[in-house]
Protein 1
Amino acid sequence: MTTRKHAALIHAWADGAEIQIRCCGDDWDDCHPEWAEDCEYRIKPKTRTVKCKLYHIEGVVGIWVQGTQGIPGNAKLIDKEWREVEIEL
């Protein structure tokens, strides 16, 4: 017995997971999957919104996420206000 190409994702979808599709190298999109053999599927990544500020030090840009250790002493902040960004977990 051969396992269907997308079997694990089909089971995850049946259990309530959100599925995304990518065909021909395009971006990932939310979908109601048809399980086409020539497309890629994945479980939609979970995201979280964090607040951060950009800084630079010796020509390199860094990201300081709110709630983490501060920036190096000789770094200069680029942002004056916190910006919200969404990250994949």
Protein 2
Amino acid sequence: MLRVSTSTLFRTGAQSIGARQSDLLLAQQRMSSGKRINVPSDDPLGAADASGVRTNLSQLSSFKSNQDHATYLLNLADSTIGDSFTALQDAQEKLVAAGNGAYGDAERASLATDLQGILGRLVGLANSGDGAGGYLFAGSHENTVPFSQSGNNVSFNGDQILQSVEVSSNRYQQVKFSGDSIFQKIRPGNGTFTTAATASNTGTGMIDTGTVANPAALTGRPYTITFTLTGSVTSYSVDRSDLGGGTTQVATGTYTAPQAISFDGVSVNVTGAPASGDTFTVAPSGFQSVFDTLAQAIATLRTPVQGSPAGNAKFQTSLGQVQASLAQALDNFSTHRSEVGSGLQELDAYRQLTGDRQLQYQTRLSAVEDLDMVKGAIDQQQAQSTYQAALQSYTAVSRLSLFNYL
């Protein structure tokens, strides 16, 4: 025979009330928070799933922040390179004006002063900040001004280390650039070789910037074109400087203005009347900064040539060279601006992808832990009813005793 004591009935009733009260509080908490899972014990598997989703969302949020920062820096770089391009176009216009045959030394000196201002403007753009105490074109030297100017001499103080940020999983976007590649590493002349008149020339001969006639025949060696007058006949010879220190004659001919002279894949045009012993040089293009090109242009415009046919011929040759070198600098700016534009387009694509993934993960997180409010209301009502029933049952049981039957 099973014997149930009064204390057992009371204890069982109290436990039932406690359990029902706990169920009611849980239902109320879910309705209040709008979440099905408020603590891991509510649904251990669901809580683990939600934790993984939150980790992914946190990573995407970091990527989104990096994307925004990268976009900001690339937009700064784009506008700065664009302004630098405009500055060089202004310089190019001054040089075109300098070729006006009606201009004298005073007018050209005035243009040189304008170029001096453009040089300073360009240095200022090259030293543009990133808005956070660093510089856009210093490489990894955050606290070092990239370029320093002394007169017309400009030197680079940064490095070639490029800064990047992670904008997607294992995908890094370059956000800062080395001023060395944008402003320094530019091939002057026609981009392959440069031409120049020797300072001691006394004739009126001029040489153009030349073209590459056969890339496969290029030697990468410097050349000297020498003119000789014998009676009324002008002839020329082309000598190549060899690695051993000697020279090799590679072309000869009779000169009649204008004359196209070709050798070792190179073609240049000479005009005017070179004097006997006059020489021109053809040398492979090394690197020349845009600042040095502007300094060369300023020096060319400030050199007095009025009343000197030989001086004017050297001026025209030098002017053609700096114009060609500026064109190379403009091309270099355009190339780097295109790279920045490509980076911005790529960032737009990653931003769209990140947004799509964030929406997917947020949808998944909502499905895992958010409460169905209709079901939550029903559950709360049921828990309330069950709790009330437990209270009433306990009340009824607690009143029972033998005295009720006497």
